[in-house]
Write a structure and sequence with these properties.
The protein has 4 helices and 8 strands, in the order ββαββαβαβαββ. By secondary structure, it is of the alpha/beta class. 21% of the residues are buried.
C-alpha cells in the first residue's frame, strides 16, 4: 500500500522516523509511538499513515484515508476556481499627435468596454523625438480622464514605461440599492 505522490507527502512505509506522534482519523491522540505501531494501527483500520508535520519533534502522523483526503482537497480547489472572476483587459492605443475627433472615437470605444465591465489600458506610444518629451503623452491621457471619469475609476494614473505612457481605467462599482 506504499505510494508516493508528486506533492511529496510521505505515506506509510515511506515515513523514515522511528518515533512519531500519532493522531487517529477521528482525532484520537495515540501519543508518541513507534512508526511500526502507528502503521499497524493504520492497517487495522484499513487506512493510511500520513506524515503531516515532518519538522516537528517527533514528526506528527495522522491515520486517514489519503485518497479521500486528496479527492476532497481537489474538489475544494475546483470550487474556488469556479468562483474566481476573470478580469478582461482591453487596450486602446493613442499617439502624441492625435486629433480631437480621433480621441472622441477612441473614447467611445473605451466607454463601450467599460460599460461591458472590462478593464481598459490606455497607452500612448512615443516615437522618435517624442521620447525626449514624454510629458506630451501624459497630457494626451490627462485630456481623456474627464471624458471617462463618470463611468470609470482611474486605477493607475498616467505613468511612463519605456516607449509608452500607460494608464489603467476600471469600471466604477455600482452602489447597492437599499
Amino acid at each position: 500500500m506504499s505510494r508516493k505522490k508528486k506533492d511529496e507527502t510521505l505515506l506509510n512505509e515511506d515515513i523514515r522516523a522511528e518515533k512519531v506522534r500519532c493522531i487517529g482519523d477521528d482525532g484520537t491522540q495515540y501519543g508518541i509511538v513507534s512508526r511500526d505501531d502507528a502503521l499497524n494501527l493504520a492497517y487495522q483500520k484499513g487506512l493510511d499513515l500520513v506524515l503531516i508535520a515532518p519538522n516537528a519533534n517527533p514528526p506528527v502522523c495522522k491515520i486517514m484515508d489519503y485518497g479521500k483526503f486528496k479527492y476532497q482537497q481537489e474538489k475544494k480547489q475546483k470550487e474556488a476556481k469556479k468562483k474566481q472572476k476573470i478580469i478582461d483587459v482591453k487596450e486602446v492605443k493613442f499617439s502624441v499627435k492625435i486629433a480631437q475627433n480621433d480621441i472622441n472615437y477612441k473614447v467611445r470605444q473605451v466607454r463601450d468596454f467599460l460599460q461591458k465591465g472590462k478593464h481598459v489600458k490606455l497607452r500612448v506610444f512615443l516615437r522618435g523625438r517624442e521620447m525626449a518629451h514624454p510629458e506630451a503623452g501624459v497630457e494626451v491621457l490627462e485630456k481623456i480622464i474627464p471624458l471617462i471619469e463618470d463611468i470609470a475609476t482611474i486605477e493607475k494614473k498616467p505613468h511612463i514605461e519605456g516607449r509608452y505612457v500607460n494608464m489603467l481605467a476600471i469600471p466604477k462599482k455600482e452602489k447597492s440599492k437599499k
